[in-house]
Amino acid sequence: MNPSADPSEVDTASWRGQNLRLVPAAATAWLGTLSGLLGGWWITMLCGAAAVVLAITAGVRARRTASRWVAGLGALAVLGVLTAGPVALRIRAAEQDDLRAAAARGVEATARVVVTERPRPVRGAGYADRRAGTRLVVVAAAVDAAVTGERVVDSAGRILLLAPAEGWTDLLPGQQVTASGRLAPAKGVELTVAVLSVRGPPSALGPAPWWQRAAESLRTGLRDLCAVLPEEQAGLVPGLVVGDTSTLSPRVESEFTDSGMSHLMAVSGGNVAIVCGSILLLLRVLRVGPRTSAAAAAAGLAGFVVLAGPAPSVLRAGVMGAVGLLALALGRRGSALPALAFAVAGLVVADPAMAADFGFALSVLATAGLVLLAPRWAEWLVGRGVPAGYAEGLAIPLAAFVMTAPVIAGMAGSVSLVSVVTNVLAAPVVAPATVFGVLATVIGPWWPPAGRLLVRLTEPEASWLITVARHGARAPGAVVAWPDGWWGGLLVAGLLAVLLVAIRLRYARILLAVALAAGLLVFVPVRALAPAWPPASWSAVACDVGQGDAVVLATGEPGRAVLVDTGPEPGPVDECLRRLDVDRVPLIVLSHLHADHIGGLESVFEGRSVGAVAVGPGRAPAWAWQQVADETARRGVPLLELSIGQRLDWPGLSLDVLGPRYVTRRSVREQDGTVINNGSVVLRAGTAAGRLLLTGDVELAAQADLMAEGADLRAEILKVPHHGSRYTAPDFLNAVAPRAALVSVGAGNTYGHPNKSTLDNLVAVGASVARTDTDGDTAVLLDARGLALVRRGEPRGPPRS
Description:
This protein is α/β, with parallel strands linked by helices and 801 residues long.
């Protein structure tokens, strides 16, 4: 191949060099099954029958000309028969399942099921007295028997159990269990016939197969071994090795998603390639023959699949890896595309629901990109002077991005612009981390010191991956909002096609290079020299931390600020402080101990000096008080209690403690959410922009007490109580008479915050309202025109109504 060849010639050559004979058969199975799942089983039957007729007709002509496509047409005919027969009948059985009809009526049911996958946790941010974490799990199962009322339902379909985490988290594939609850229709186009919302723990538990118990023991051993690592790394390593994200930090999970690296925590072909490749490399050094090597790698593959569990992604990776090893054993090393086609067809026939699975589509497209595009792009880069290793490192993630971006955009409604860069930076450490982790998992139970040593060897790699993901997620424009659905996916595909065509044309490449250079010269200096955020001389910032509170108060010293509340989870408040260049926090005030005000506390300490943490007299809920006490003790930071009348001063900032004046005699165990809200610390901050009243979540009773006690509530800026709930008295707003109001609230929350009547009352008293769910971080400052509200990314201006 000519190294200086045009990229268009490279791509054409890559297609000519592949054996495409099995592709029509695989496409028939996949698209025919997908059509049936979307429109009805009869469409799948028609697609299969049409494929059979086409194969027979074309086969007769091909035999006359001795065409090399005869074998492919035979495969097309076989897949057509399978699609029109068994696959269509399985879709029909799911459509007509009696449990589906019962689910449509929303009746109560008791089902005896067999668990088919490990329970998947559903994490939630903390709110009120509910701590952040996993409260629910989703359990995929196959129905063995079901009863609705007194009627036995004839069903052998798939079902999803939405169950409490307690009692259900530790179930293993292969276990029989009985569950009771209310049925609901299943969403999506898969073969799942119903969703059962379960109440209470499982009953009549059966034993799990011995190999599943052994695999769970190894996974538990790996989690225990990872206790020697820092918290974030300890949660990440099991995810990298066996896809176990049960102890993964929500912050790390979010950062991996935003930076386009979440696939590293789902067992996929990459894990299989690393495990099998390591075995094959070792046996090659020992000069073992290809068939024996393939057999040994197949044994390792089978063990790894059992270890990771029978999730769809694991089974996909296992099947594709097995086909590749079979090709190696038969001495057919250049058959990557036929192996992929065979695996696609086999998986869809074995499990028709795969055809509608986004993960399956991403896996197939990414693999196709690696087979068809990456090798040729790498050669093209080598021909232009890029070293071979670097060329492959660039070509592989770029090819995967080009092939999968349309599906990701249509599925998620967003596009990660940093995923290629982050995956290039991550690639060198994934393999050693996986190998060390697998070895630790296998060796640890028998030789714990060696297991701990191997786990420690994964720490540098895990730390590097977290660093890459964190900086990737922080990059400006890391995730771009995009239209979701079919149109969004097609739009991305069209843009990528235009870009690839443009790159093939010499003058278009020059224009693209000029446009990129101009963009870098214009926008980068502007952002570096005159960043839009934070605005100069800001006095206070309401951070966008989701459904929770976090307000930063500037002192007269750059980089030093007081923080009131920390949001519902680690991460968002840390990012807000980082954007404000705050590295010293003399005081953190926790207005009260609800989860949406204390959840981000631990992340405030990261890379910052903290002088003290202050609370009010409340100690409920008990778990939250213990969490705050433990965190401050671990950090060696004083934990203080504020009292009414106390005044705190810093250069450019003062805090007066006005409340809580609401008094309760209830014990900690008896205090409900309203009592805890009314016990919020109320502060009046003196800032360069004016007085700011910080109200926590005080409700009607506490607001009335503040007014009755004659507290001076007048303030130019109000942090609206309780995320703008309806429990805000108009008289209280009149007493404050704010010119600007900050509502800290999460987008799309289910609590009805902020309430329309509260917003109307704020406008009626003459306040301009800023909401973090629509405006993001919002700064308050005083400029030449007076009091100003600046939304992140918007030009400075006066308060707007």
